[in-house]
Design goal:
By secondary structure, the protein is an alpha/beta fold. The chain is 36% helix and 20% strand. The strands form two sheets. The chain has a six-stranded mixed beta sheet with strand order 2-1-5-3-4-6, with helices on one face. A two-stranded antiparallel ribbon has the order 7-8. The longest helix is centred in the first third of the chain and has 15 residues, at 4-18.
Length: 182
């Protein structure tokens, strides 16, 4: 029978195998094509557009290979947070981001892709706390919307712009960001 130290060592070895950087790299390369796995677009539009919801949903999915779950934000104006999964093609991401400018408050923060499903886009989302986001400038958003960017270039820029801060405000102090993803 194994003693406690051996069980702990075995568990640590199994855990290391499951979350190894090599496994993460392999996972990053293996994105299912959008022809077999659609991109899910979820989030909120400003409440003032409630009557146009059906038309707006059609506008979000007209690019193809997407499905949409867009709802009017119950409190009026949406948050300015956007999230783009690592397997979303750049042309779909640009279409959704450009369309979202018409019906939301804009884009001021990006969510780190480590917290996202690979085939998912969130607009005006409120489910991510500040330590998982990074604020962006209008110039950075414009760089992401450049139609000349390939999928790889788009996601490299997105990852660069969504690197979280090392510290976060907490009760008037700066504390280490426990959600920081390297």
């Amino acid at each position: 029978m194994l003693d406690l130290r051996k069980w702990i060592g075995l568990a640590a070895l199994l855990l290391a195998c499951l979350v190894s950087p090599a496994g993460a790299e392999e996972e990053a390369r293996s994105c299912e094509p959008v022809e077999t796995k659609k991109i899910k677009v979820e989030g909120y539009i400003n409440r003032e557009h409630t009557r146009e919801k059906r038309q707006i949903v059609k506008e979000f999915v007209e690019i193809g290979h997407t499905q949409s779950r867009i709802r009017p934000f119950p409190l009026g104006k949406t948050s300015k947070v956007v999230a783009v999964g690592r397997c979303v093609p750049a042309y779909i991401a640009r279409h959704v981001l450009n369309t979202s400018f018409k019906y939301t408050e804009g884009i001021e923060s990006l969510v780190n892709q480590a917290f996202l499903h690979s085939h998912w886009i969130g607009i005006g989302v409120t489910i991510f706390d500040e330590p998982s986001q990074q604020t962006v400038t209008k110039e950075q958003v414009e760089q992401l919307l450049d139609p000349q960017l390939s999928d790889e270039e788009f996601h490299a820029l997105y990852r660069k712009f969504s690197i979280q801060d090392d510290t976060v405000p907490f009760l008037g102090q700066k504390k280490p960001n426990v959600k920081k993803v390297d």
